[in-house]
Write a structure and sequence with these properties.
Order of helices and strands: HHH
Radius of gyration: 16 Å
Number of helices: 3
Strand content: under 5%
Number of strands: 0
Length: 97
């Protein structure tokens, strides 16, 4: 496993996940508004599904790179960093994945 690539991927993927989190908050506020619309069943379901998709994106990217790359040393870095970022962001956002 390439440690330099591993730590670089962790930093980049973490920034993307947390940036996407704040982007989703802004999008949901603009879409549902505040008040009764924000506490509806549709808003809660949309929020849960989108956060699960957002936190699992690094893992999906890591699996894709693991399958497509021919150099397995770099491929393991992609896979392990995606797994680590997925687990940590799932714990941070309080999701049960």
């Amino acid at each position: 496993m390439n440690l330099r690539l591993f730590f670089l991927l962790i930093i980049i993927e973490s920034l993307c996940v947390y940036g996407g989190f704040f982007g989703l908050i802004l999008f949901f506020f603009l879409h549902f508004g505040s008040g009764a619309g924000a506490s509806s069943e549709k808003a809660m379901l949309t929020e849960n599904v989108s956060f699960i998709i957002l936190t699992s994106l690094p893992l999906i990217f890591g699996i894709y790179k693991y399958i497509t790359l021919t150099e397995k040393r770099k491929a393991k870095s992609y896979l392990y960093s995606g797994l680590l970022v997925t687990i940590v962001s799932g714990i941070y956002f309080g999701l049960n994945i």
